[in-house]
Amino acid sequence: MTLHSGRGFACINYPIGMNLGGDPAQALVHSTPDGKFMVTLSAIDLGQGMKSVTRQIAAEALGVPIDDVYVDTADSDTGPHDMGSFASRGTHRVGNAVIRAASEARAHMMEAAAEELEVSPADLDTDGAGNIHVKGAPTRRITVAETAIAAQFKQGRTLSGRGIFLIEPSGVDPDTGEMSPVTCFAHAALIIDLTVDDETGEVEVTKINSAYEVGRALNSRLVEQQLIGGAWMGVSHALYETTEPYYPDRREGPLDFNAYLMPGPGEIVPHDIAILERPAPDAPFGGKGPGEMCANPVLPAIANAVYNAVGVRIDALPITPEKILRGILAQGGARPQGQRG
Amino acid sequence: MSSVEFRKELFADERQDDLKQIGRPAIRQDIRGHVTGRTAYYDDHLFERLLHMRCARSPHHHARIRSVDTSEAARMPGVQRIVLAKDVPNNLNTLLSLINFGKDDEPLIAGTKVSYRGEAVAAVIAETELQARQAAAAIRVDWEVLPHVLDVEEALKPDAPQVNAVYPDNTFDYEPYDHVKLRFGDVHKGFAAADEIVEATYQMSPIEQAPMETCGAIAVPETADRILCHTGTQALFFSLGTTAKLLDMPSSRLHFVGGTVGGGFGGKVDSITEPMAVLGAVLTGRPVKFQWDREEEMQVGAPRGAERWVIRDGVMRDGRIVARSFTGYFDSGAYTRLSSYAGTKGVGHLPGPYSIPNVAANVFCIFTNRTPATAMRGFGITGVDFAIECHMDRVAERVGIDPISLRILNAYRDGDMKAHRRTAKNTALVECCQVVADKAGWRLSAEDRAASSLTGTTAERQAIPETALDEEGRIGERRAGRVTGTAPTERSTGRLPAGTRGRDHAAIPVQRPDMEILSERVGHRMPDPAEAGGAPPLAAAAPARPTPPAASPPPARPASASPPPASPPHAAPAPPPAPPRQPEPAQPAHRSEPTAPTAPARGGHDPAPPAQPKPYEPDKPFSRGVNRPGVSRFLTGRRR
Amino acid sequence: MPKIPVRFTLNEAEVGLFVEPQSNLLEALRRGAGDLSPKYGCGQGTCGACTVLIDGEPHLSCLTLAEAAEGRRIETTAGLAQGSSLHALQTAFIEGFAAQCGYCTPGMLMAAKALLDRNPRPSREEVIDAISGNLCRCTGYEPIVDAILAATEGRAA
């Protein structure tokens, strides 16, 4: 038995939001009597952090601390319409709707504060810590809580906002395929190091290096969660997962997790990530959704690394030991392609 | 073991890193609920006298239902109700009918024929899950087994079994063709001029989304004759609208609650458990839970569809790819679900993040007697990225060029024209390649290290070439045996002049000025108002005017424009003026603006302007989008 | 068939239930005792989302007959915190971003608690071994392993 080392590369871009647009998202923002803010959505948090990232976006757009914002989703009686959590649209579409709703609420808040401070709203700014002050004169200030109390109980003013975000829907020209698919793209490049056992055909991924361009990491740890977990899923797709091992034959389909295989905690791959941020002009604070694209480059990079290790090209996923061994057998032995880089 | 670094020096002049809340590693809003077990997923709601629903399913890939005998099941202990196709008020739907795309082609419960193994033919509602399961197993169906087809290319043959009566040719209708076409330049001329041709076929496997929480919903009769539905859906109003339509109920009678979901990955968009549970609650007047078990999740729940991609590249010895054609087959399974959308999305993604002057694609959405496919993380893209990036390595090997160097050479840059006739902007592929090579110690040439997404475009790369057109593969021709080939044909029937393109589509501006965030608070350089045609910041560039290619380096903001909050107040100069506000509720006045010519290349390296484009509006686009923004079918349960 | 009476302690409180014959402990805890922290993930004993501690040992409650809980001491994630004071594992999961959708988290925490209760200073390999019956589809496991190790360090301090 010999372990052959291989290294493979892949790079990708990824469209953000539903293809061809036409997928609206709405948001509502209102303040409590003492100046905390509720964001009401119909977006879905399926683990990607929808509630958390929209909370952070709302806080930034309002100019208040994150802890003073709470996101409530998704109740069709109170939440305004949203298409749903798919197509990497949450951050971009819902985030923009939240910015718009929060901006309108902020405008009302600044008007209320201006009335209390007897200045023009344009002369005011927030400090992000719960205060509104006169630009250039931080001691002339009022707290957001005092502003909200004055607005509601004295001025008869609501600190609330509505937002909708929609990319105008595009059609497709049937003769050329001309279309406006999306307005921004995330990017990634990734290098896989692995070993292939030429006796068993087993692959062990030993290292992932990656560079992900995400527009802006709106929450650095949420992005990290996606990139680490997404790359894990990419490894899983490349090497293990299928509902039909003999596709298009439907025999031998797995019915449980004993037969549907995924890597476990014993197969954690060290993953060194670089995050690049080129803000997209129409994205919330420039941020593109990283959740889907993170898995994509892993699949081809593994296939390319397997070829580099033993000279066998596996063009049909998943890259199982059986396929690798058949390939090695067909060419009369492993044919390492030489060190890369 | 793993590590994360931020490469803040890259694109630094396009960013302001003075945001107060954005970027911080704030803890998740939902995390305390997760670690204390208090987070309430759809199933974490207790109801008195909850009933359970289980389905009887087809053991055959394709069969006609002669009769269903429920007499034994109905007598079994605990059984409250048996649900058949006739109990579904409007038993034909397609998910994307909610955005006017595609024809209704799938029953909630099959009544006359099943088209995949596992398709539901009846449901049992009983007091316990076990009783429902036992009664479902006692339902007897008299089947007439029909011939089936499982392979996408077999399904295209004229004599293939007909999977779905609504699409008799086994292909989704992309009017007027049976596939999506992409035509940019002339690939066959490109192949003829190339030094090398590299061709290969790639196959994606069907993959289960495998969220830890299976699909499910609990429906509960509520006050005011409404139904409350706790759901694990990924798309609340998709599920609500689908339920309203299938059950012919006004949407105002439905109260959907969700938003806290135990993983989705695309598998919780299909909106099957919600109408089933609501129907059960309507029929029994009691709370009903319909939850897939893990076996159903794996073999009945729609997987990521298997895709097959054939890629053919024409490449020059120096590594420039001069022509690339695709033949793509999306295996939709027995019904459309979302595969039609994936076909179009996949075509919008071609030819990957590269500038290639001649590109063509034929992409099919094909019906087979398999479990319907649906969305999964990277939907419409993961499979073709696998194919493209494996193919790039094949090409690199053929011409003897370093794989990363080949990518950088062909990478799309700001200002390049993409194959779907839109200008690339905000690109960063080159930088990702450089950074990861550096991290992994993969040596690049000085030229590759000096490359940039901001430079490198040329008049040639910005231009839309004259394009060879054809009309092969009209709906029905293949079934009639008049067309056999699936790859983009060499027999062109017309030429589209160079430079021909329509208008871009962008965000619709804010409806009131107050909803617009101030430009100095967004954390990045907004498009120059002149460049953006006066559109408000978040509307990005005005749709009718492509961003000038290789926009000159962003005017660096004066460093003083972003004072840290703590700086002495009097030292802080005034922020730069905000761009002009959009005056009034902006009706998209840009709709009729003519197309602007492509701007000349930067730096004057290549003064020859590309061919003058003319305004172009495709005369018969097939519609995928909402025809009338603001008038949504989500608002009604009625079919139109 | 008549229902069967079962008595056990759940997070130190006494519980008495009548359960269906053949029904499992997961349903008894969730719908009988109202403790919704153990989750249904597969019903086949292959995912670990329903993990609870029985007399201190991790068990898959979906494969455990409810009547087998008679007289036993059962612990779930709902009882992990002492009042409003979180367990070290919970704090470590929060600070380590060790959950995304959160559905596997209660089972993970129970598997981890069983380990730490018998081995307060486990090695990385022992942590991996302890959670190898618990599946997670979101995180890639690394943040979970790191959080459990961080919790042991917190205890030592």
TrEMBL record, chain A:
Instruction: Specify the enzyme's EC class, one word.
Output: oxidoreductase
> What UniProt keywords apply to this chain's record, in alphabetical order?
Oxidoreductase
Q: What is its EC number?
A: 1.17.1.5
Annotated Aldehyde oxidase/xanthine dehydrogenase second molybdopterin binding domain ranges read 5-244
Has the keyword Cell membrane been applied to this entry?
no
Q: InterPro entries recorded for this chain?
A: AldOxase/xan_DH_MoCoBD2 (IPR046867), AldOxase/xan_DH_Mopterin-bd_sf (IPR037165), N-heterocyclic_Hydroxylase (IPR052516)
Q: Name one GO molecular function term.
A: nicotinate dehydrogenase activity
* Protein known as: Nicotinate dehydrogenase medium molybdopterin subunit
Starting at the broadest rank, the lineage of the source organism is:
Bacteria, Pseudomonadati, Pseudomonadota, Alphaproteobacteria, Rhodobacterales
UniProtKB/TrEMBL annotation, chain B:
Stretch list, region Disordered: 448-640
Q: Which domain of life is it from?
A: Bacteria
Q: Where is the composition biased (Low complexity)?
A: 529-544
- Does the record's keyword annotation contain ATP-binding? no
Q: What is its EC number?
A: 1.17.1.4
The UniProt regions of compositional bias labelled Basic and acidic residues, in chain numbering, are 471-480, 513-528
Q: Describe the location of the Aldehyde oxidase/xanthine dehydrogenase a/b hammerhead domain by residue ranges.
A: 36-147
Name of a matching Pfam family? MoCoBD_1
Gene Ontology molecular functions:
iron ion binding; xanthine dehydrogenase activity
Q: Where is the composition biased (Pro residues)?
A: 545-586
Q: Could you confirm whether the keyword Ubl conjugation appears in this record? A: no
Alphabetized InterPro entries for the sequence: Ald_Oxase/Xan_DH_a/b (IPR000674), Ald_Oxase/Xan_DH_a/b_sf (IPR036856), Ald_Oxase/xanthine_DH-like (IPR016208), AldOxase/xan_DH_MoCoBD1 (IPR008274), AldOxase/xan_DH_Mopterin-bd_sf (IPR037165)
Q: Which Gene3D superfamilies match?
A: Aldehyde oxidase/xanthine dehydrogenase, a/b hammerhead (3.90.1170.50), Aldehyde oxidase/xanthine dehydrogenase, molybdopterin binding domain (3.30.365.10)
UniProt entry keywords in alphabetical sequence? Molybdenum, Oxidoreductase
Q: What is this protein called?
A: Putative xanthine dehydrogenase subunit D
Supply the source organism for this entry: Roseisalinus antarcticus
From TrEMBL, chain C:
User: What EC numbers are recorded for this enzyme?
Assistant: 1.17.1.5
| A GO term, aspect molecular function | nicotinate dehydrogenase activity
Q: Does the keyword Nucleus apply?
A: no
Q: Which residues form the 2Fe-2S ferredoxin-type domain?
A: 4-80
Pfam families per the UniProt record, alphabetical? Fer2, Fer2_2
Q: For this UniProt record, give its keywords in alphabetical order, as a comma-separated list.
A: 2Fe-2S, Iron, Iron-sulfur, Metal-binding, Oxidoreductase
| Domain of life (superkingdom) | Bacteria
Which PANTHER family does this entry report, sorted A to Z? Answer: OXIDOREDUCTASE WITH IRON-SULFUR SUBUNIT (PTHR44379), XANTHINE DEHYDROGENASE IRON-SULFUR-BINDING SUBUNIT XDHC-RELATED (PTHR44379:SF8)
**What name is this protein filed under?**
Nicotinate dehydrogenase small FeS subunit
Annotated organism of origin: Roseisalinus antarcticus
